[in-house]
Sequence to fold (580 residues):
Amino acid sequence: MTGQWLAIDWGTTNRRVYAIAADGTVVASERDDRGILSVAPDGYAAEVADIRARFGDLTILCAGMVGSNRGWADLPYVPCPASVAALAEAVRWVEPGRTAIVPGVTVAEGRRRDVMRGEEVQLLGAVSAGLAPADALLCQPGTHCKWAWMVDGRIDRFVTAMTGELYALIGKHSLLSAQMTGPAAPGTDFLAGVADAADGDLSARLFGVRADAVTGEGAIGHAASYISGLLIGVDVRERLGAGDHAYVLADATLGGLYRAAIEAVGGRATLIDSQAAFVAGITQVWRLIR
Amino acid sequence: MTGQWLAIDWGTTNRRVYAIAADGTVVASERDDRGILSVAPDGYAAEVADIRARFGDLTILCAGMVGSNRGWADLPYVPCPASVAALAEAVRWVEPGRTAIVPGVTVAEGRRRDVMRGEEVQLLGAVSAGLAPADALLCQPGTHCKWAWMVDGRIDRFVTAMTGELYALIGKHSLLSAQMTGPAAPGTDFLAGVADAADGDLSARLFGVRADAVTGEGAIGHAASYISGLLIGVDVRERLGAGDHAYVLADATLGGLYRAAIEAVGGRATLIDSQAAFVAGITQVWRLIR
Fold:
């Protein structure tokens, strides 16, 4: 175990632990639902003690919401443009020499503020692992979809869109909920939504789904796919156009929807492995602080 | 009571009854919560019997959701362009010679369908009463905000935006709910939202409200007002621009927010009385069918 250490991607709901060898190889990993919402404010030391009991008495480097005001320690954000070196410099040791946390990143553009905690490690890792070039647009779809513009290997700027949360709100609580049966799929109805997103008139297009059902005309097809296409279509069209290339860090299902929308607007999408990106990124930070 | 009759604006949640004299004057009215959601499918005849017991044994003309599949009778929609004459021709007598219902209106533009039931009477009435010109843009804010383009006194086309419903969803069920304290007001923060709506990037602007709170920078001010400004701003910017004039049928509170947004984009807004418009519209229909 010489040179071995532990990395933890510690989010709001989930947690993933990696045992990493000196050469950067992942030798073991586990995923559980011990995200910060499942841990009491004073429970973090016991959590990492449990992890060491399973993986060995190793040094731990964490990233994600564990570094927020609801986590183990509230670390200030590193401003954009943010490099691996800047993150490493701002790492906080919560157990001296034993356990450290990587900070999040922030950006300010006019009145708009944006923040991330955890995604910055994936973004920087994707570039350092060669999964994406040093100058690239990266996309992390999800409840809060992040788009980051990498310049010279740093996070130059980024924007978070509530795309996934809006889809969930409409699916669970709106007039349209009853129509949104089954999961969205990247077929004809999804692409119709992406096309209709071009006019930017989201809230009128949404009511159109209702009117389509009321009139019984069926012009819209599968409502969940169409609405997913509308929302992802608006998101994608705001970020890129014909000829642009985006690197998407997501599983095949959600990544497939984003890829279909990106291609529909004339862009190109490459799906990359977000776990590999995380491991590469946190290993880069590790090498700068150990 | 010679020549007197009853008009009912019978919506989903509320109902308003007007006793109208032969000359079109309202001699009595009442508002209650006996909208169609409070009435059993076979309960409508008893409802109008109760109304006649209070107002007199008069002929009744209804409009609104009472003419839907969840109401007393499911009337087909009249297509745009829709005139008072077309509505009058499609009136359905549910109690022959005693009680009739005015149909709703529909429009189809490409894949988009739209429908209204009840608003058409207000729209046509606003013009016939001289509250708005025969060629005008009319706006009916609410849960589902309707915008109608009147041409030559007819409803030429219209669009419904889920603006109010999205605001309610975000206020009740989203990550931003806790920040949205108190009602929206048409001040600086609302106008900042209207301004930020210009880039069309609603879901990123919404996440910005969260990031503003997390970073503690307070760049956004009163979140409810800012978010209301964003949503109404997107809605207004889709419909009109500098120099355009909209006639808004709404109460002073919601109408005031729409007026502020319309003026912020360089348009002009006139608030008009939606009850007066309804009475004028249904009186026009009445005169054609009696």
About this structure: Residues 223-239 of chain A form the longest helix (17 residues). DSSP finds nine helices and 14 strands in chain A. Chain A has a mean pLDDT of 96.
